[in-house]
Specification:
By secondary structure, the protein is an alpha/beta fold. 43% of the residues lie in helices and 9% in strands. The protein has a five-stranded parallel beta sheet, sandwiched between helices. This is Adenine nucleotide alpha hydrolase (AANH) superfamily ATPase.
């Protein structure tokens, strides 16, 4: 078997300091290891007020903290801020996945990421959100560029983390680390719709805190 050799990654404008917005350990695992392999100095910014309920939020955050500590990567734990998220989502409760509510959600999270990057001297920000095949990469990148564009000297790195086998390595790392495996996007409306889909197909509803990646198992569609 040919040994896998990572490509050397270069952030925009040759910068070496990056703020990585992370939504969870499974999505960020490959991104983190890829940047470490390229000698990029990065910090994780965890701001995800969309994730509900609190039990689910803490499970996702704690897994991300565990993996960051394993690699010695700085981790910024931003406020939960769920009330502001619900206020911004008002009127979009029945929007479909990848619709206007998701755009609002990405905007909100990236706006806070960009502000932190601006205030703490990060010239580049990026996100692991786009590595998931369940997400619209163009939608995510548009939100990222819009948020970074508010500040002079800040760039959004829209690297395609899926390419070159990145999406598959995301799963491999998740199995290796036995990460908590979330079964819906994160918000209560996604949980509602995912459970309705499961009921329609004769499946039991999601039980939070019970699903983990294991060797030899493939993740469910979420």
């Amino acid at each position: 078997m040919t040994e896998f050799v990572r490509l050397n990654l270069t952030p925009p404008n040759g910068q070496k300091k990056v703020l990585l917005h992370s939504c969870c350990a499974p999505c960020s695992g490959e991104v983190m290891e890829a940047m470490l392999a390229s000698g990029i100095d990065y910090t994780i910014f965890f701001y995800n007020p969309n994730i509900h309920p609190l039990k689910e939020y803490l499970l996702r955050k704690d897994e991300n903290v565990r993996f960051a500590e394993k690699h010695g990567v700085p981790f910024v734990d931003a406020d939960y801020d769920k009330d502001n998220w619900f206020a911004r989502a008002r009127g979009m409760e029945w929007e479909p996945e990848r619709g206007a509510r998701c755009t609002m959600c990405f905007d909100m999270r990236f706006e806070r990421t960009a502000l932190y990057a601006h205030e703490h001297g990060f010239p580049v920000m990026t996100s692991c959100l786009g590595i998931s095949r369940w997400k619209n990469m163009a939608q995510i990148n548009d939100c990222g560029h819009r948020a970074a564009g508010r500040y002079d000297g800040l760039s959004y790195w829209d690297f395609n983390w899926r390419k070159g086998g990145g999406a598959q390595r995301m799963i491999e790392i998740s199995k290796r680390e036995q990460f908590y495996q979330q079964e819906y996007c994160g918000c209560v409306y996604s949980l509602r719709d995912t459970n309705q889909h499961r009921r329609n197909h004769g499946r039991a509803p999601i039980v939070i805190g019970t699903q983990f990646y294991r060797q030899g198992e493939e993740p469910d569609a979420t």
